[in-house]
Specification:
Elements (H helix, E strand, L loop, with lengths): L1 E5 L13 H9 L5 E4 L15 H13 L3 E6 L9 H21 L3 E3 L20 H21 L2 E4 L10 H11 L4 E6 L12 H12 L3 E8 L9 E2 L7 H10 L5 E4 L7 H9 L5
Parallel strand pairs: 1-2, 1-9, 2-3, 3-4, 4-5, 5-6, 6-7, 7-9
Antiparallel strand pairs: 7-8
Helix pairs in contact: 3-4, 5-6, 6-7
Length: 281
């Protein structure tokens, strides 16, 4: 396995515009090679309508110059939004990112299976468990897979308690229904604990890896301070049994990037040291 980090960790909202070289220099300062990227780092929206080719070339060259690689490219939009027009816009922009993925140096785009909330794609809504929400999300996923086929890329999906695909069981259902080798799993041990289940975290992690361990394409490394919501704390600062999480990743045969996020730039050196203590790299 290899330690990675979200490039957005180093975005400074007070600067007039992102500097890709400056962002990647900070990653290099951590002796980290795997970078999960977002077009926010280019001064564009996360789901842009277009990406200037010169920015793609600049980013690829900047990564290569530092012996870094793009472990994934963010392509999150609300795949279960109740408004079909919103889903269609997301798919159109997904194709923009898919068409650029190989030029950036990656074949993995990460998705959000979405929610019925119209305020945030990460916010829980009681209708997420409805069959209508599943049908809409599945239809969107089918179109996303067709895009992935056209551009020879993979799509990363992850169980997340606030989304329609809220559990490892629902994720397994989606994989089985789609039957596509274009889908892979983003495993995040901090995202899978419904309210009241944290005392059983080893049992729940075991089940997640039993169901999904053979399909993991990338892993996330963050932490949680309570169950019932997705974790959003820096790795090693919360309640996740990290020794067991890393053990299960290793036991599953996963050998890809374990990507830090949910942390500040100031926390990054400590989080890298935390993962290194598990002999990740």
């Amino acid at each position: 396995m290899q330690i990675g980090i979200f490039a957005t960790t180093f975005l400074n909202p007070h600067e007039p515009g992102p500097d890709v070289d400056g962002l990647l220099d900070q990653v290099a300062g951590l002796s980290v090679a795997a970078v999960s990227f977002d077009t926010l780092c280019l001064g564009l929206p996360s789901m842009p309508d277009a990406i200037p080719p010169e920015q793609i070339i600049q980013t690829r060259e900047a990564l290569l110059a530092r012996s870094q690689w793009m472990s994934s490219l963010s392509a999150t939009f609300n795949m279960a939004h109740p408004d079909p027009a919103e889903r269609a816009t997301g798919l159109r922009r997904l194709e923009v990112l898919a068409a650029s993925a190989h030029a950036f140096g990656t074949d993995l785009l990460t998705l959000c299976t979405g929610t019925r909330s119209t305020e945030s794609m990460w916010r829980f809504h009681p209708d997420n468990a409805s069959e209508a929400a599943w049908v809409d999300m599945r239809a969107t996923m089918e179109e996303a897979i067709a895009i992935a086929e056209r551009y020879d890329i993979r799509l990363g999906i992850e169980p997340e308690v606030a989304n329609v695909v809220a559990s490892p069981q629902a994720t397994r259902r989606l994989l089985d229904e789609m039957r596509s080798d274009r889908l892979t799993i983003v495993m995040d041990g901090a995202n899978i604990f419904p309210a009241g289940t944290l005392p059983r975290q080893r049992e729940i992690l075991d089940e997640a890896f039993d169901l999904l361990g053979g399909d993991i394409g990338i892993a996330h490394a963050k932490d949680l301070t309570r169950d019932g919501a997705a974790g959003n704390a820096a790795a090693g600062t919360g309640l996740l049994d990290y020794a067991y999480y890393i053990h299960l990743l290793r036991q599953s045969g996963f050998n890809g990037a374990v990507v830090l996020h949910g942390l500040s730039a100031a926390q990054a050196p400590g989080c890298v040291d935390f993962l290194n203590a598990f002999d990740i790299s």
